[in-house]
Design brief:
With 251 residues, the protein is α+β, with helices and mostly antiparallel strands. It contains eight helices and seven strands, in the order αβββαβααβαββααα. It has one domain: 3-Layer(aba) Sandwich (L-fuculose-1-phosphate Aldolase). A seven-stranded mixed sheet has the order 3-2-1-4-7-6-5, sandwiched between helices. The protein is globular, with a radius of gyration of 18 Å. It starts with 11 loop residues before the first helix and ends in a 6-residue tail after the last helix.
Length: 251
């Protein structure tokens, strides 16, 4: 696959966003959360134009590079040349969230086995792990209405999401919101871990629930855990991990 570099054709700010987003795609593949070519991570390009970056439809997540990402508008119309199509249906959830949440710079959506399994459980996320306490503190649910193709679903999804960071799409999968790509990725790491732990724990004996009092004031706890750096405590290490294995995402 030979895609010409866009580094000298876009602003430095957009290029860095492309590199970060390509890194997130590679990390999703690395951690086993991808679903062939069928989910998306979108990032809002700073500026008044309401433009976004999204994956070229047909590339595996471990093939995506900074230059292969496609710039689209709010209706998912392509704004830069690419030999690959985009998937307007796949952008429905993303455009809905970006439209309703101007504070969100990145939306990450997965169809992992553990995530879909918990999304199909009536109980939803159970407070049975330390990881789950961070998720439950900012968790929303949206009921399944079929494949997300219809515009009339958008207001309901926006209302259900509210200001939450974590969104469980019932019978469908998981989504996380972040101000940055790094924020959305670290949140998804926690969300995916929560669901994997829950499915594993349910295969064992009787579950122990976390004391509800521990769930209070979790944002302050998270700030202490990350030394006030948020996703910045882990993202540089994740980038170093990618650079040691395959730095081609930067091209």
């Amino acid at each position: 696959m030979n895609i010409p570099s866009l580094q000298d054709k876009v602003s430095a700010e957009e290029w860095q966003l492309r590199v970060d987003l390509a890194a997130a795609y590679r990390l999703v593949a690395l951690y086993g959360w991808s679903d062939l070519v069928f989910t998306h991570i979108s990032a809002r390009i700073p500026g008044p134009e309401h433009h976004f970056l999204i994956n070229p439809y047909g590339l595996m997540f471990d093939e995506i590079t900074a230059s292969s990402l496609i710039k689209v508008d709010q209706q998912c119309n392509k704004l830069n040349d690419s030999p690959f199509p985009v998937n307007p249906a796949g952008f429905t959830i993303h455009s809905c969230i970006h439209d309703g949440r101007p504070d969100v710079g990145c939306v990450l959506h997965t169809h992992s086995r553990a995530g879909v399994a918990v999304s199909a459980q009536k109980c939803g996320v159970l407070p049975i792990s330390q990881q789950s306490t961070f998720v439950i503190a900012s968790l929303a649910y949206h009921d399944y209405e079929g494949v997300a193709l219809r515009d009339d679903e958008k207001p309901r999804l926006q209302a259900d999401l509210g200001k939450s960071t974590f969104l469980m799409l019932r019978n469908h999968g998981l989504a996380t919101m972040g101000k940055t790509v790094a924020d959305a990725f670290l949140s998804m790491y926690t969300f995916e871990s929560t669901c994997a732990i829950q499915v594993s724990a349910q295969a064992g004996g009787e579950l122990i629930m976390v004391n509800p009092k521990i769930l209070e004031n979790m944002p302050a706890v998270m700030a202490m855990v990350t030394k006030g750096q948020g996703s910045g405590i882990a993202w540089p290490a994740l980038i170093r991990k990618l650079d040691r294995t395959d730095p081609s995402y930067k091209t």
